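(Protein data)
===
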Amino acid sequence: MRPSILRIADFWRHGPKSAELEERIFEIAYQFNRASQLVMSVEERVYVAELNLIAGKRAKASTAHASR
């Protein structure tokens, strides 16, 4: 049986539709990051990396940058 934190992350991976995934990307990435030591398969690790990339790009886009 998978630990609770990883089951929560799995729910996010297989549950929400793409619109909800985009809306909750930070929550989903957070859950997987909390369970990162439990993620064993290469497929899951790639998925987590992709989520973090999407979340990072979204965070960067949402911050104000000073013009130079």
